[in-house]
Each structure stands twice: as structure tokens, then as C-alpha cells.
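Technical note accompanying the year-one report. For the benefit of new consortium partners, we illustrate the data format agreed upon in the data management plan: each record pairs a sequence with a C-alpha cell string. No post-processing was applied to the example shown here.
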Amino acid sequence: MLLFKLVAVAASIAILLVIVDWREVIAILPSLRIGYLPLVLVIITADRFLMAAKWAMLVRGVGVRVPFADALRAYYVGGIMGSILPATVGLDLTRVWQLSSRGHNLAVVSASVLVERAVGFVALSFVSLVAVVWLAGSLGLDLLAVELINLSAIGVLVLFVAVSLSSLPKKLLATRPDFLSRHRVGRAAGKLYRAYLMFRDAKVSLVVFFLLTLVECLVPVVVAYLVGVALGIVLPIQYFAVIMPIYMFLARIPVPVNVLGVQEGMQVVLFSLVGVSPAQALSMGIVRRAVNVIAVTPGLLLFLMDQARKRPAGETMPESPVRQATERSHQNARS
């Protein structure tokens, strides 16, 4: 994975060096109107609060109460880890670890993340499909490949969720009762699957979660639009409403899109479809990345506070076994 990320970063930066006029970028960035950035940070922060509230509501749908503060902390710390590890993997694993370490049911929390990702991806695929159809129709572009990817993603995920929540897998496992109980990994998978099935009865929570996710898709649109305005890039907001869902959909594909260079390169390609120069698109990408990093910094503070709380004041690190054995031998020799 590390080699893949390094190759992707190197290739993306090489492409950007070729197609972007860096003198124009240097000329655009100083024109940034800082006054817009506090508003952008407020919107991103509100979005993170909405994410935490949605997740806590989803878990409560199966009778497990997760305090909003715990869910919010998990999202902030996960945001920091997501900037180090592959974005969604780092975020999801950190959220599960954060809540399970606070005494919440590991299987239910893990299952909620799986359900959240599946339902969220269906919602994003739907919004992205609408955006692609609008863009192709208004600009006369041939985006059939992206449309097919969207439709395939929606179909596969809907089919997966429907089958996995049906009685079919349970019947198949009933023919091999020892399949999930023979090994430790199998027993853990069995607990996860049983927790996942609990969401069959949380239909109201799933519908509300889906609708809130549709609304949440507007947040990156508004953020990108405000960043563009701050840089003096005049572009109707409807273009951002089309480009950003497509970008968000592609960013969910399991490639290292979040790493430096890849994300910006994708934005350069997409915004070029609506007449934005590579330098302008790259400038927007740079500012958006910087603002997002600032927005998740509370996660770093929370993580450091957690680590400090685990080690009481005045506690020293235990000595290594080698040093302990050496000291004992010296004491025996002196005696």
C-alpha cells in the first residue's frame, strides 16, 4: 500500500508539474481573501457535528446508546488518523477503536460503520449520478463510463444490503453450524454478522440517515464554492453542485485519493470540464486541503489528551527486561 501511495503521489505531482502553470498558481494564492475562511471552518465543523449525530442516531436505532460526545470525539480523532492512513480505512478503524475502548459493544459499533458506509455510498452514488447526467446533458460531454460506474455501484450495494439483511445467509450458515465457531476469527465474524442483522429492524433510522446524507452532500459544494469566491474564481454554484458530488464519489473508490497530489490532480481534471484553468483548480484544491487540516486539528488535541490521561502524572516508563536482569546479576555479584 505504501509503495502504491508513493507511485500515485509521484505520478500525480509529475502530471501537475506538466499541465499547471505554477507561476499562475503563485499569483492566485496571495489573492486569497482570508475573511471567507472562518465561515468555511464553521461549515466544516457543523458538518462534523452532523456526521457524529447521524452515527449516534444509527446506533441508537438498534438499542445501543452512544453519547453524542463520544461519537464526535471518535470522528475528530478519526479525521487525524484518516490523514495518515488511507482516508476511509483510517477514519473507520479509529472510530471503532475509540468507541470500543470506551466500553461500547465492539460488534455493534463495527456493524454500524459497515451499514453507515453502505447507505452513505448509495446516497452519494445517487447524487453523483444526477450530477453526471446534468453535466453530460448541459455540456454535451460523453460521460457514459462514469454513469455506468454510478449505476453499477448503486445496483451492487443495494443488492448486497438486501441479500445480507435477508434470511439467506443465515440459512446457509445453518447448514454449517461450526463454520463461525471453530476459530477465534470465525466467532468474531459471527458476532459482527449478528450485530449487523440487528439493523434490519432499524428501518426508520436507516431512512433518516439516508436523507441526512443526501443533505450532507451539499456541504462540500458550499465549501468549494466559498473557497473559489475567496480566490476570486467566478463560477456559478451549480457547477460546483455538479463537480463536487462526482469528485466525492470517485474519492470513495479504494485508491489513495486523499494523499497529496492525487486529490488535487482529480480536481484539476474535473474542473477543467467547466472551463476552470488548471492553476485555478489547483489553487482551490490547495486551500481546501489546508482548511480541512485546520478543521481536524482538535482531533490531534483530543488524541494527545487521551494518551496523557492513560499515563498518570509522575508515572515513569517501566524498565526493560534486559536492564532488570542486568541489575539483578550485578546485585547477586556484589552479595
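Partners are asked to follow this layout when depositing records. The chain is about 75% helix and 0% strand.
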